[in-house]
Every structure is written in C-alpha cells, then in structure tokens.
Amino acid sequence: MATPGAGHEASHPSPAKYAAIAVILSVITAVEVWVVYVEALAGVLLPILAVLSITKFALVGMFYMHLKFDSRLFSAMFVGGIVLTVGIIIALMGLFQVFVD
To answer: How far is CA 22 from CA 6, 64, 73, 92, in A?
Structure first.
C-alpha cells in the first residue's frame, strides 16, 4: 500500500536555495523594469514582458508553493492554466485585429 507523500522528493530546498530563487526573481523583475525604458524594444515589449512574467509565475509556483515537490500533475495544472490564459489573450488580440497595422 502506498504511503501518503510517497511521491514527494525526500528533502526540500535549503534556505540558501530559497534565497537564490529570490535573487533570480529580483533579477527578472529588474529586467522587466529595464525593458520598459528601452525605446528600441517598444515593438516587442509585450512578448518580452509576457515571457518574463510567466517565468516568474512558474518559479514562484514551483518553489515557494512547493509544486516542484508534489505530483507533476499539480505543476501541469498550475502552469497549464497560465499557458491557456496567454493563448486565449493572443487569440482575442488576433480576433480584434490588434496585430494588424
């Protein structure tokens, strides 16, 4: 008979690992702010910010919400929700011809 938590990883990250993830999230946030002020990137601003935001979303979900240590199904549902949302937003933008000049 399977014991509860048998699918979990044996050990969770150390405080140093959490600090490293916090530094990575801070760097991503700094890049997001920097990208907004670079005028040369104005044409690709939204895709860049979307990728950076989704990356942060996934990191927070995987480490701080401990999804990395739970069943992969939970991670797939969590990240799948944001991917589905982005897909719907892109489809709506196409429907309303946002991409047409």
So the answer is: 28, 10, 25, 33
The amino acid occupying position 54 is I
User: What is the chain's Cα-based Rg?
Assistant: 18
Q: How far from 4 is each of 18, 70, 72, CA to CA, in Å?
A: 25, 11, 16
Overall number of domains in the chain: 1
User: Is 21 within 8 Å of 42 (Cβ atoms)?
Assistant: no
Asked if residue 33 is part of any domain, the answer here is no
Burial 64-99 (b: 16+ CB within 10 A, else e): eeebbbbeeeebeebbeeeeeeeeeeeeeeeeeeee
What is the per-residue pLDDT across 63-80, written as a single tens digit (0 to 9) for each? Answer: 777 776 778 888 788 878
d(CA 85, CA 35) in angstroms, rounded, equals 23
- Indicate whether 93 belongs to any domain: yes
Question: Above pLDDT 70, what percent of the chain?
Answer: 86
